[in-house]
Structure formats: C-alpha cells, structure tokens
Write a structure and sequence with these properties.
The protein is globular, with a radius of gyration of 27 Å. Strands 15-16-14-17-18-19 form a 6-stranded antiparallel beta sheet, with helices on both faces. Strands 11-6-1-13-12 form a 5-stranded mixed beta sheet. Strands 2-3 form a two-stranded antiparallel ribbon. β8 and β9 form a beta hairpin. The relative contact order is 0.14. It folds into 3 domains: 238 residues, no CATH class; 75 residues, Alpha-Beta Plaits, CATH 3.30.70.1380; 64 residues, Roll (Ubiquitin-like (UB roll)). The protein is α+β, with helices and mostly antiparallel strands. The chain is built from 11 helices and 19 strands.
Length: 392
C-alpha cells in the first residue's frame, strides 16, 4: 500500500502543497496542462528551489493578469466540468475541495452554497492552487493519506471583510473536528485553500505511520519565518499491503481509592458500551499507595460515552486522552470443523501472505462444557484441525 503523510509543522497552503507534490516528482507540465484546460488566460506555473531557515524547498509560483472577479461555486465547477483534459478523478477531487470551502463560507456569512461568492479563494491563483493540487495528488497515486495535527498560527490578517484573527473564520470552520497543533508564530500558517485540501483528502490525522519511505517533498511558503522553516513536508512511502491502519483514542485514569469489584464492574460497562479494549495496570501512586491504571481504547465518536462511564462509575477527577495510530492485520471470520464440533474463530493474513487461525474463546467454551473436556484441549484440537486443512 502506498501512503502519503503531510507533515504540516508550518501549516499548509495551496502553493506549499503544489511545491511538495512537485518536489516529490509530480510533473509540473501536467499540472500546467490541466489548469490551462479551464479556459483562463495567461496562467503560468514556475518552480524554483529556495531556502527557508536554511533548509531547501520547492517554491511553486503562479503568474497571471490581475483581476477583480468574485466567483460563485457553480461558476468554478462549470469550468472544471467542461475541461477536456482533467480526468474524472481530478474533477471530482477539485469539486470536493471547492465545495468544502463553499460550505464553510456559507456558514460564516449566513448564506447558502448557491449564493455565497468567493473572494480570495475565487481568484485565479487560488483556483489554480486547488485544481493543480487535485491533479498533483491524482498523479502521486497514493492509496491513503495521513496528516499531522494542523497549526494555524496566531495574530490578525486583513481580508475582504476587514481585520480578523487567525485562524480566519472560514479556516476555523473547515478545520472543525480536525486536530490542531499549538503555534505561537504571528502569521497565518494555514490558509482556506490549504485547510480545504487536507480536510478533503486526509483519511486520518496523527503521527507518522510506520512505513518504508520512498520520497520526501518539501513545499515552501512565501515567507521565510524567523521562528521556524516555512515548509510543508510530504513523505511518501509503502506499508505492508496486509496491514490495515486506523486511528483510535486512548483514555487513561489513575485510581487508588476504590475496590476491585467497582473496577471490574466499570470495565464490563465500558466493553458493553463499545470500547475496543479495556485493561488495567498495577501502579504505584503518591505516598506509596498502590493503585490501578485503567486504559480504554475506543473510536473517536465514542470518547464522550467512555468518559461518562469512567467518571460515573469510578469517581475519578480526571481522564487523560490522546489519539493513537495503529496497524492491524487483515482479518475475517472463519470456522473449522473438529471431531467435537464446529469452532468459530478469526483468520488473520500475515505480511508474507500466509494465514493464522485464532479460535474464539466463547465457541471453545461451549464445546468444552458440552463434551466435558478441558478448554485447552478444544483450543489445541481446533488449531490442529486448521493446520491439517491448510496442509491438505
């Protein structure tokens, strides 16, 4: 599986995205041809290597005649749909990015998607950024995109509607639900175009996944910031095709003043409510008191439900939480026939393509009770039967 990781240490913008893509080997001439097909006149891309805080990066610039156009979403979409050069995948991605921006603008201005008109993002250079990025991402040909938490910067900027604080209203709307990174840089690090690109294409947000790195692209922003390199790093690599990846949340709390019965009851309720896993660890707390660390793994949408149970059942005063990326083997339900009956379980596909079978406890327990045999014997019988079936 080919995977791309956007390391947004200094935020993300349209031109930084283009620079990172070109630095990863995407053909700028192909991007130029695709944008030319929109029918705008005299748009010219150029790329040059620049330095940002001593590090090299690719700066993609867009030259075009000055204009004062304020476009509606449907005007831009019509141009995209009419292109004889863009592929259907590229058109669809460009439309989705612009729709993301349009929906944010409509919410900010109390308008509708049909009526809202773009100011800065409706300009030719921004259109070129979005469509060019859609083309570049398509040509990059990755199967999955992961992004780091996104810093927005601080301070104030001047836009069509006057002076606003960073993040700008549309950027804040677009980044709802996306992890943000703290930043004290007094500059708009993440633009509406950059926010919309990553909000549209990222499959998950978190740390760099386990991968074998193949390419690294660095896209430079306009300014050479004094605080840090103004670069977007795009890391492209490969992961084992049998490994699946997703993001879960880890919730933890320390307990030292409740009984084991209460903790056991709480873990049962957490599992019943949909926790992926719950486990306890013996710890030493302040004043040398023995305690218990309760750890919960859950999907993002289950965080509030899990925390409510922990607060209610344990009386804890605080819960720590953070996102964690995980890799897991491809797996599917499987059953194996034994002399004592059918045993249900899971089949996992290993990195070399071979498989392993794990009998389910409950299925083995039922057989052990019915046949009055040790549970371990049922496990061993099921594994031998599976091994025999793979060798025959």
């Amino acid at each position: 599986m080919k995977i791309a990781y956007f390391d947004c240490a200094s935020g993300i913008s349209g031109d930084m995205t283009l620079g990172a893509l070109v630095d990863c080997g995407v053909d700028l001439a192909a991007i130029q041809a695709g944008v030319d097909s929109l029918g705008f006149t005299q748009i010219q891309f150029s790329a040059a290597e620049v330095k940002r805080k001593g590090f090299r990066g690719q700066k993609v610039s867009i030259d075009h005649p000055k204009e004062q156009a304020h476009r509606h979403l449907h005007h831009i979409v019509e141009k995209i749909d009419a292109s004889p050069v863009l592929t259907q995948t590229q058109k669809d991605l460009a439309r989705r990015i612009f729709t993301c921006i349009g929906e944010a603008e409509a919410r900010v201005h109390g308008s509708t998607l049909r009526k809202v008109h773009f100011h800065e993002v409706g300009a030719v250079d921004s259109i070129a950024d979005v469509v060019g990025s859609a083309i570049g991402l398509s040509l990059l040909g990755v199967d999955r995109i992961v992004c780091s938490p996104v810093p927005t910067g601080t301070g104030f900027i001047e836009i069509e509607h006057g002076r606003v604080s960073v993040p700008a209203p549309a950027v804040a709307e677009i980044l709802k639900g996306i992890p943000l990174a703290a930043s004290h840089v007094p500059f708009e690090l993440t633009t509406p175009t950059g926010a919309a690109i990553i909000a549209t294409v990222a499959d998950e947000f978190g740390p760099l996944p386990a991968m074998k790195i193949r390419q690294i692209g660095l896209g430079a922003g306009d300014r050479d910031l004094k605080e840090q390199p103004n670069l977007l790093r795009l890391i492209v690599g490969e992961v084992d095709e049998h490994l699946l990846s997703d993001q879960v949340w880890v919730l933890e709390t320390n307990l030292d003043d409740i009984s084991g019965e209460v903790i056991g009851h709480c873990t049962t309720k957490l599992f019943e409510a949909g926790a992926l896993d719950v486990y306890t660890t013996a710890i030493q707390m302040k004043k040398n008191r023995p305690g218990v660390l309760v750890t919960v793994l859950c999907q993002p949408e289950m965080i509030a439900k899990m925390e409510k149970i922990l607060f209610k059942e344990t009386g804890t005063l605080g819960i720590r939480r953070w996102p964690a990326s995980r890799h897991k083997l491809e797996r599917r339900p499987h059953s194996i026939q034994t002399e004592w009956g059918n045993v249900q379980g899971k089949l996992a596909v290993l990195s070399d393509g071979t498989t392993s079978f794990s009998p389910e406890f409950e299925s083995c327990r039922v057989i052990a009770m019915e046949k009055n045999v040790p549970l371990k014997d049922v496990y061993e019988l099921a594994l031998r039967a599976y091994q025999h079936s793979t060798n025959s």
